[in-house]
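Quick one, T. Sequence first:
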Amino acid sequence: MTTETPSDPRPSLAALSAPLVERLVADAPMLRLGVERVGGACVIDAGIGHSGGLEAGRRIAELCMGGLGRVALGPVPGPPSWPFGVTVHSAQPVLACLGSQYAGWSLSHGSGKGAFFALGSGPGRALARQEALFDELDYRDTADAAAFIMEATALPPAELVAHIAAACGIAADRLTLVLTPTQSLAGATQVVARVLEVALHKLHALGFPLDRVVDGIGMAPLPPPGGKFLTAMGRTNDAILYGGTVHLHVAGPDGKAEDLAHRLPSSASRDHGRPFAEVFAAAKGDFYAIDPMLFSPARVTVTAIDSGRSFHGGTLAPDLVERSFRDVR
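C-alpha cells:
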C-alpha cells in the first residue's frame, strides 16, 4: 500500500491515512460517530444522525490531510469572545493540502429534489485521479483501500458509492466515506482546519511554483456551529478570510516571496470587507460570481528560507469575525 520507490520517494497518502481510518471507526462510540454500510462501503456519520464533536472534527481533518498534517485545538489570536481555534501544520504542505485535503472532486447522483451532491476531499483523490491537478503534482498513489471526506447532509446513494470505488480501482467494501455537515461541530472544525490548504490553493492560482513551498503552518478561530447551512458556511469561511493566519516557508528569490505575501491575503480581493454570508447573498447564491481571490487567509507571513527574510501581508479583522459568529441567517 505504498508508492515509495527510488524514482518517487514521496509517501503514500493511502498508507499513512489507513491507521487513522481504523482508529476513527474503533473510537466511533466515544466520538459520537455513526458507522454503517452503504453499497458495501463504510460510511461514517459525523453530524447527520449522530452528533460528532470537536475531537471527531480534529481527527477527520488529519485524515483529510492524508496523514501528512497535524491538527490541534487551543488558544488562537482573534476576538476576545472566541479565544479558541484550530492550528494546522504540515511538513509536506503541497501534497497534504492540494493532493489530499482540497475538495477537488465533484460527486453527484440523480437530479431534482432527491439529487445527491458533494465535493470529495481526502487521500482517496490520489487513487481516483479525476482532476488535472494530479498531473501537475506528478503524483500517483496505489492501494487497495481509499477514504474520502464529504460535506454532506445525507447518505450517498449506493450507485455513487459504486462509481467512487470503480474510479479508485478498489472493491466497494474497501471504501470509507466520512460525512461532515458544515453545520455540525465536526464539520465546522474540519473546514476551519483547511486554513493552510486555502492558502496553498490561492498560491497555486497565483502561479507561484509549488516546488518552492517547503513548510507551512496556519491557525484560525473556531466558530460556533450554524443552525442553518448559510450561517454555518458564512462562519467557517469568515474564520479563515478574516481570522486566519498562515506562515509559509519558501525557497527562491526574496522578491517572489515578498510579492506572494502581498498578493496572498484575502484583503487583495475586491469582495473583501463583508461577512461571507453577505457576499454570497449579494452574488445571489452563485459561487462563480464571487471573486476567487477572496478565498485565502486574512494574514500571511512568507519566509524566504534562502535569505532568512520574512514578508508580511494582510491583517486580521476581529470585528468581522465577531459579527459573523453572532449573526444567524
